[in-house]
Amino acid sequence: MSEFKGRSLKTILKTSTAAGLAAVMMVTAAPFTAVSALAAPVEVNAPQVPSFGDVVSAVLPAVVSVRVQSNIQPASNDESGYSFNFGGRSFEDLPDDHPLKRFFREFGGPGMDGQQERGPRAERGPHSEGRLRPTSQGSGFFISEDGYIVTNNHVIDDGAAFTIVMNDGKEYDAKLVGKDSRTDLALLKVDAKDVKFTYVKFADDEKVRVGDWVVAVGNPFGLGGTVTAGIISARGRNIGSGPYDDYLQIDAAVNRGNSGGPGFNLNGEVVGINTAIFSPSGGNVGIAFAIPASVAKDVIEKLKDTGTVSRGWLGVQIQPVTKDIADSLGLAEDSGALVVAPQAGSPGEKAGIKQGDVVTAVNGDPVKDPRDLARRIAAFAPDSTVDVALWRDGKATEVKVTLGELPAEQSASVDTQNDAAPAPEAEQELSSLGLSVRPAEDGKGLAIVDVNPDSDAADKGLKAGETITSVNNQEVSSAADVQKVIDQAKKDGRTRALFQVESENGSRFVALPINQG
Q1: Degrees to nearest 5, angle at CA 134 with 164 and 73
Q2: Which of the residues 259, 346, 436, 507 is marked catalytic?
Q3: Least confident of 3-12, 142-151, 413-422
Q4: DSSP annotation of 43
Q5: What is the pLDDT of residues 211-242, one digit of tens each?
Q6: Which residue would you say has higher pLDDT here, 78 or 269?
Q7: Rounded average pLDDT over 146-174
Q8: CA of 24: how far to CAs of 19, 30, 92, 178, 307, in Å?
């Protein structure tokens, strides 16, 4: 005890603490000994996404590259004496990044799909002399072991010679069996003795769902067999390419050269044929369009049998039935196809279909819209007799139509001539509609002189210079005629009236509210 005398408590605590820490370090030194790390790779034990490898290995031998050659005329001087010769080379010999090629590609190429693989077309006559030059490259696939190949019409269009390149590099000459520009499909045939080709079949459209996997196989940019995957994003897309638009939309990467290539489901069946892309830049942005298997199957069968596709023809100009139009006609639903005008001498006119009729069904199957009607009629062979259900004058009726054959080039427009010059002394007001009109000079209808910009008529697109020919399918020649029809419609409980309007672009129906005033 005496030895601690004169030492402060603080000094004693410091000594004890230091000793305690030293003891702890001695006791715990062993666990902190460095140990060498094991040289092992990272392993992840997690659920694995199914591979597309089995599908691809099975279908790849059936997918081919399609190379097209066309008969190109030699360069010659035009009447002015100017020679279209680019430094001793033809247009096709210019590099792809040449300013002239970029110019013609931008301003002379296809519309929105960015899919055109052809070079500039040379004018060719039936007796032109020239040489075969490569002009196009796309994709295709075998549908039979004896060599039938499906591709896009725009891939082979104007081609004079066709070469099929297999996945293993083998090449075969092919001949054109038939093509159909309306659905952008074409059928080629390879004749090779003692060769059986690997082929694929079309899927059942009824089982194709939005969200299903799809594997696109093709030859983008001439790279050879390339595979991309995605899902079906939508069905029934209309991209404005023709009256039979009914595309599948997929998000698999599809680019130039994929045209004509197949999109497969996980069973290796073709659900669609890649034909177009939406692309502001010309490259893939995840929106591609494919011809559904059901459409392709029907067209290809006809091309195989006859080399052409014959379609039924009704011969009526039609437009959609909007909610306003349905209300003006007393229809419960805004579906069907409104007849703007039957074409003179057409099967529809001969059967008694009239302007203002709404086609609601064909052979008992409901018609959704004009595109649906066009597809249904086209599916019948010419000379077929069909039952066409109509909504006319507020009640249902039916006519039998013997279909004709759709002409090669069928125009839906109706040429009209309207005199837009005003005649102030004859102007009449339809103030409740926001219109000023006058009798048309030919005595058929009312010429629109002025449209109130704040009116429903203006919102519906009516313009000065157009002509109102009928209201609720009754011909009118004065404002009084219009008012009489409107008054009757109000008595019938209608809130809108159906106006038929003629313009330089043709005829159309517009439904206008009639409950003002």
Answers
A1: 135
A2: 259
A3: 413-422
A4: -
A5: 999 999 998 877 778 899 999 999 988 877 77
A6: 269
A7: 92
A8: 9, 11, 86, 92, 95
Cα dist. 79→74, 128, 205 in Å?
Answer: 16, 18, 55
Residue 92 pLDDT: 58
Quote the pTM value: 0.64
pLDDT at 17 (0 to 100): 45
Give dist(CA 242, CA 371) in Å, integer.
9
Q: Specify the 3-state DSSP secondary structure of 368.
A: coil
User: So what's the pLDDT on residue 415?
Assistant: 30
Answer yes or no: 98 catalytic: no
Note whether 511 and 496 are within 8 A (CB). yes
Between 92 and 484, the more confident residue is 484
Query: Residue 124: what are its φ and ψ, rounded to 5°?
Result: -130, 135
DSSP 438: E
Give 426 or 316, the one with higher predicted confidence. 316
Q: Smallest Cα–Cα separation from 376: which of 444, 430, 445, 298? A: 298
Which residue in 157, 184, 324, 456 is the catalytic one? 184
Is the Cα dihedral 61, 62, 63, 68 positive or negative?
positive
HSE of 204, CA atoms in CB hemisphere, 13 A? 3
> Which one is catalytic: 154, 233, 251, 470?
154
Closest residue by Cα to residue 447 from 492, 406, 417: 417
Q: Judge whether 197 and 142 are in contact, CB under 8 Å.
A: yes
- Strand, helix or coil at 422? coil
- Give the CA distances from residue 155 to residues 112, 116, 246, 262, 300, in Å, rounded to whole numbers and listed in that order: 16, 8, 20, 14, 16
Structure letter (DSSP) for residue 46: S
Residue 259, CA atoms < 13 Å, CB-side half-sphere: 26
Retrieve residue 505's tokens: 């672009």
Please confirm, yes or no, whether 154 is among the known catalytic residues: yes
The Cα–Cα gap between 196 and 36 comes to 61
